[in-house]
Amino acid sequence: MDISLVIPAYNEDESLPELSEWIARVMLANNFSYEVLFIDDGSTDNTWRVIEDLSVANSSIKGIRFRRNYGKSGALNVGFAQAEGDVVITMDADLQDSPDEIPELYKLIMKEGYDLVSGWKKERHDPLSKTIPTKLYNWATRKMSGIYLHDFNCGLKAYRYDVIKSIEVYGEMHRYIPVLAKRAGFPKIGEKVVKHQARKFGESKFGLNRFINGPLDLLSIMFVSKFGTKPMHIFGLLGALLFAVGFGAAFYVGAEKVYYLSQGIPARLVTTNPFFYIGLTSMILGTQLFLAGFLGELVSRNNPERNVYLESSRVGC
Are residues 218 and 247 in the same domain? Predict the structure, then answer.
């Protein structure tokens, strides 16, 4: 199969028929074999009924339904698990991403050898309240990750099959899939300017909380990517340093006490010396951090599933 399209949908019953027809026209014109995986992320409208009808009319359309809203990352992760195409393309279901970009994205992966190609909405049809924070986050992500893309959060992306089978998207990590891919050993990441269309139906499903969760998720990715398989390298090091500082402070307090006693000088109580508490606290914290690193090493040997969706329905799969 040439292409798998993974499309999360949350209350998008109005846009799905037009999007499906548009995709079918593009695929037919380019003679692609394909599948469309619609992930109904706990919609409260008629989205699932529309997907069922579309699946009956077109055997290339499949659907997965969540009983509640898990978020875009969970939807993408389940879609990636089911995708079978040589190239996997993600897009939003609101018609703001153009299926006409699919042939060029496919070419960049299969002929140009990219592992991942991210869309760049150079001209956006969004309010300033959304575009300005997005630019700031993109700048911060570029600096922290070393991946120089203009638009990390663009929903229109293309992946080589091996990429989506080598990463796990959870929480709200969908914003930083290029970072996950690079950390998984897929460094050839490209970018393509894509057309951003004005929203035709409904309204944006993303609230202000994404401006808080975004940077936190990036920090999490960077930390886990660097220390996820070797937590002792960070916790053990910090613990050892703190313990050394505490031991030094305690040694100073003890040495001072012994010196005063040997010289016949009245010595103050150890508990009145601030270095005693500094040393005690530092040694306790150092020990706890070291133990945290040790336990982290034990936990890292396991690989628990972060995305478990026991309550789901399928159609056409």
Answer: no
